[in-house]
């Protein structure tokens, strides 16, 4: 009896497996799907995350100072493992708030104006001419890295063609969660912490310094939240006004012309009625 055929499984090379493990695109794809598809309250979650980042950053920055030695013949100071860990945590949070602020300000939703005249330039900086057959890029963290790493092609440098170009409008469309975190813990907040903390031993009033830092952070957060709330309310009011204008236009002009008011008119004749024709003969008139 012949032995059964042996299965041959091709294994990936070590370089491909390492590149697949170190590739951040899978993590960014999962993160973008979680942020855009999961059902959550962005205001509450953003407030909790922002306050948690404030507490962690405050504690880490306070413990990131090296131990000073007052001895004349000392080494000048030593850093413990807690100080190294605190510094790493501080710069991780700084990098995180920078990435979140950049993603919040650059996330857009793309619209293409197919009926707009290609020779008439829109009165906005968000519009640009693109090829009508090109695929719009998705608004996700992956788009930022792809746009930064993608080299310029010959088609991008080619002269624009009126027959193949269309105007593309990039409308700012931040995620509510990212916007709330950017208002509560922005790069400006991190800069304030880096300026005031850690407290020097020569500071005569360390508690006043910490209080001033916290008050400044609170005022900055409230100001950003107030601006964000006013802008959101303005967008809602503008949408309401536009909707009511279209409703009034439909009520006054469109509907009367589509459904005009008419009056039913009909004639009726008696079947027994007779009239005289031109020759004087009786003619029956009826149905």
TrEMBL record:
Biological process according to GO: maintenance of rDNA; regulation of exit from mitosis
Location in the cell: Endomembrane system
UniProt membrane topology term: Multi-pass membrane protein
InterPro entries linked to this entry: Nur1/Mug154
Keyword S-adenosyl-L-methionine applies: no
Annotated keywords: Membrane, Transmembrane, Transmembrane helix
Key word RNA-binding present: no
A GO cellular component entry from the record: endomembrane system
Name of the molecule in the record: Meiotically up-regulated protein 154
Organism: Ceratocystis fimbriata f. sp. platani
């Amino acid at each position: 009896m012949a032995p059964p055929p042996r299965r041959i499984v091709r294994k990936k090379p070590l370089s491909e497996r390492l590149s697949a493990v170190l590739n951040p695109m899978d993590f960014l794809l999962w993160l973008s799907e979680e942020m855009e598809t999961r059902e959550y309250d962005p205001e509450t979650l953003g407030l909790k995350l922002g306050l948690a980042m404030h507490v962690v950053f405050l504690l880490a920055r306070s413990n990131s100072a090296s131990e000073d030695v007052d001895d004349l013949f000392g080494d000048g100071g030593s850093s413990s493992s807690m100080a190294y860990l605190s510094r790493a945590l501080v710069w991780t949070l700084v990098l995180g708030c920078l990435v979140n602020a950049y993603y919040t300000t650059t996330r857009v939703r793309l619209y293409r104006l197919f009926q707009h005249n290609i020779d008439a330039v829109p009165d906005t900086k968000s519009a640009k001419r693109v090829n009508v057959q090109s695929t719009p890029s998705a608004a996700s963290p992956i788009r930022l890295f792809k746009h930064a790493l993608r080299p310029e092609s010959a088609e991008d440098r080619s002269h624009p063609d009126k027959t193949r170009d269309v105007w593309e409008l990039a409308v700012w469309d931040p995620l509510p969660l990212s916007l709330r975190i950017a208002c509560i813990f922005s790069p400006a907040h991190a800069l304030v912490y880096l300026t005031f903390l850690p407290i020097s031993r020569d500071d005569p009033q360390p508690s006043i310094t910490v209080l001033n830092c916290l008050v400044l952070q609170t005022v900055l957060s409230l100001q950003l939240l107030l601006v964000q709330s006013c802008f959101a309310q303005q967008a809602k009011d503008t949408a309401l006004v536009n909707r009511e204008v279209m409703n009034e236009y439909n009520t006054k002009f469109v509907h009367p012309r589509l459904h005009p008011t008419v009056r039913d008119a009909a004639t009726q004749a008696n079947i027994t009625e007779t009239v005289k024709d031109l020759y004087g003969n009786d003619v029956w008139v009826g149905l």
